[in-house]
Amino acid sequence: MVQAMSLEGGGPAPNGNPNGSYQGTFTDAPAVITSTEPTPGTNFAITLKDKVIAITGANRGIGLGIAEVCLANNAACIYSLDLMEPGEEFATLAKLHLGKLKYRHMDVTNEVSVKAAVDGIVESEGAIHGMVCNAGMTKHQSALDFSMAEVEQLFRLNVFGVWNCATAAARAFIALGIKGSIVFTASMTSYRPNRAAPSAPYGGTKAAVRNMAHTLAMEWAPHGIRVNSISPGFVRTAMTYFVDKQPDWELKMKYYGGMPRLALPQELGGAYVYLLSEGASYTTGIDIPIAGVVGAW
């Protein structure tokens, strides 16, 4: 199961500390944002320069692919917040980006664990600019074969976990006076059933996530906080290894059209980079479908 900060422009922290460290606590009076317009001198290039980004479930799979693309686009630091320990893939990427890819143990379903992880990032880096709520799990089987415990597990991780991470990030952004970005990993199953690998509870969790992104975007817009989601189609991960091994896969692709393959996790990354960047400063409350085989759904 996957559970899968320098400041903008390198300036001082919101409390005026010249070394960029945040000395206050989130119980202090929140910083006041007088305008949600871009900060004067904003770099509108699609880049994550000087950005500290947290990605849940980034020790492998889609999360690690997102981390790789964020680092390729000059992110100052990426934190993987994950329940499982990092593996060989994570270690290889970390060696390529010395000091820029870090790991913190965190359980997205535990509110205390999430808050401690976000506080720890702020303490270490002086700020946090983006949160990617990506950790999740799936289980594909007929609806009548699900136990209530299995359904509850899916909702606890995929929905409640996103809620915990989004609200913790928003509180940090408000306390620091940062116009941060939050991106949810939803799914094309939030729009319609996955006929190749059905899962009614999973689709329900992702529909909830997509709606939550739109609602939080509306609520947090006055703080300059942007909330968006991305809905991937079939992506090649440890959880989807079986999809294109089915005997009728090629026939389905021929009949429905679209790109007849699964995406690499890295092929999703550009959309996350855009939504996390200042180039998307007026983009909030949207979902971006990324599904080259969308016709197969």
Automatic annotation (TrEMBL):
<dbReference type="Pfam" id="PF13561">
    <property type="entry name" value="adh_short_C2"/>
</dbReference>
<dbReference type="GO" id="GO:0016616">
    <property type="term" value="F:oxidoreductase activity, acting on the CH-OH group of donors, NAD or NADP as acceptor"/>
</dbReference>
<feature type="region of interest" description="Disordered">
    <location>
        <begin position="1"/>
        <end position="34"/>
    </location>
</feature>
<keyword id="KW-0521">NADP</keyword>
<dbReference type="InterPro" id="IPR036291">
    <property type="entry name" value="NAD(P)-bd_dom_sf"/>
</dbReference>
<dbReference type="GO" id="GO:0050664">
    <property type="term" value="F:oxidoreductase activity, acting on NAD(P)H, oxygen as acceptor"/>
</dbReference>
<dbReference type="InterPro" id="IPR002347">
    <property type="entry name" value="SDR_fam"/>
</dbReference>
<comment type="similarity">
    <text>Belongs to the short-chain dehydrogenases/reductases (SDR) family.</text>
</comment>
<protein>
    <submittedName>
        <fullName>Uncharacterized protein</fullName>
    </submittedName>
</protein>
<keyword id="KW-0560">Oxidoreductase</keyword>
